Amino acid sequence: MESHRVIVCRCEEVSLADLIETASSYSCTARELKLRTRAGMGCCGGRTCRNMLDQVIEAVTGQKPDHAVSLGYQPPVRPMSFQLLGGRK
Amino acid sequence: MLDSLIIGAGPAGLAAAVASARQGLRVRVVDEFYQPGGRLLGQLHQEPDGTWWNGLAEAARLQQEAVEAGAEIRCGVSVFHVTRQDTSWIVSTSEGVMEASMLLIATGASETPVPIPGWTLPGVMSIGAAQVMTNVQRVRVGTRGVIIGINILSVAIARELLLAEVKVDRMILPAHSVISGDASHPVAVMQSMLRIAHLAPSPLIRMGSKWMKSTWMQRLGTALYPSRGFSMWGIPIQLRTAALAIIGVNQVEGVRIAHITPDGQPVSGTEQIIPADFVCIAGELSPLAELAAVAGCPFAYVPSLGGHIPIHNERMQTPLDGLYVAGNITGIESAKVALAQGTAAGMSMAFSHGSLRDPHVLSDSIKQIEIVRNNATLQFHPGIRAGRMQVGLMAAERSL
Question: Pfam families per the record (chain B) (predicted)?
Answer without folding.
Answer: Pyr_redox_2
